[in-house]
Design goal:
By secondary structure, the protein is of the alpha/beta class. 27% of the residues lie in helices and 22% in strands. Helix 2 packs across helix 4 (50-65). The longest helix has 20 residues, at 121-140. The protein starts with a helix and ends with a strand.
Length: 307
């Protein structure tokens, strides 16, 4: 059923399409064969709903990236986070979400060659903030206490790590990734550390640039003009969240497309994960420099720079 549905969904008959089809068939089939899929996986994958399809594919692709990690035995799947892996003696629960492109303009999602389009960075950021909030509250419960999270339900222990894996593949512009926001940091970093656009500060008298940095943006307005917080990792309520695993995976690397991955660590995490534990091109670690300031350092394969 998996093979038949993917061949039907991507029916083109050429070398690139065949490679892409085979990659999706492989990772989805292996997720089931390894016993990492819940009982709803196949039914939702082949349901014909785009959101369910990409949610399932996200789990399969991330499980494939985690190949080689220790997946310990766990209670029956379907009533807790998507994956459990071990970082040494530390249990790391991974909850996966693939946000839908709600209110992201079609002119961005289906770009036409030769057309000039705007970068809808605010609309995309709102999808990231919503996804992270949803999965963070899956762990800690709702702000009003009416909905219990995994911690209160006993699905995740207080000394376990918890990672939110957000796959932004549905927010892409065709083959082009939408991994980085207006700040040039990943959208995930903007959503948890209140990072806004670049700004320059000019002396009014000399008209010279005296400072270059990023705006502090603790909120972003949604379509109802409500203020949506962008400071998840600065809010003690979410200290049980260890990191955001921000990815843009749709299987396109099998045909040469970019599929970036980044890990954004929570500087206040109760149970931090090790740097380098999750596959990523780069990782971001915040270090307090005063009572109300921090430095966000990028560490990765190519560079290590402060911003």
């Amino acid at each position: 059923m998996i093979k038949a549905h993917i061949l039907q969904r991507f029916p083109f008959n050429n070398q690139c399409c065949t490679a892409y089809q085979q990659e999706l068939i492989r990772v989805c089939t292996e997720l089931v064969d390894r016993g990492l899929a819940d009982h709803k996986f196949v039914g939702e994958l082949i349901s014909g709903h785009d959101s369910k399809f990409w949610s399932c594919v996200s789990e399969a692709l991330l499980a494939d990236r985690l190949r080689g990690k220790n997946f310990p035995a766990r209670p029956k799947r379907g009533n807790g986070p998507d994956f459990l892996v071990m970082d040494g003696d530390l249990k790391v629960w991974i909850e996966v979400i693939c946000p839908e492109p709600i209110r992201v303009p079609d002119t961005w999602l289906v770009c036409q060659p030769g057309e000039v389009i705007n970068f809808p960075h605010q609309e995309i950021l709102l999808r990231w903030t919503s996804a992270i909030k949803e999965k963070a509250e899956k762990l800690v419960g709702s702000a009003d206490g009416k909905v219990k999270g995994y911690l209160k339900k006993g699905k995740v222990a207080p000394n376990d790590a918890y990672v939110i894996a957000v796959n932004g593949c549905q927010l892409r512009s065709g083959p082009f990734s939408a991994h980085f926001g207006i700040s040039q940091f990943p959208f995930a970093a903007e959503a948890v550390f209140s990072i806004g656009p670049h700004q320059i500060i000019i002396n009014r008298e000399t008209l010279k640039v005296v400072e270059r940095d990023h705006q502090y943006r603790p909120y972003i307005q949604n379509h109802n003009d409500a203020q949506v917080p962008t400071y998840v990792f600065l809010d003690p309520r979410f200290n049980p969240v260890s990191a955001i695993w921000a990815v843009d995976l749709n299987g396109g690397s099998s045909i040469g497309n970019s599929e970036p991955m980044a890990v954004i660590h929570n500087l206040n995490a109760n149970n931090p994960i090790s740097i380098g534990f999750l596959p990523a091109d780069e990782e971001y670690v915040a270090t307090p420099t005063s009572s109300d300031e921090y430095t966000l350092k990028k560490v990765g394969v190519d560079s290590a720079s402060d911003d």
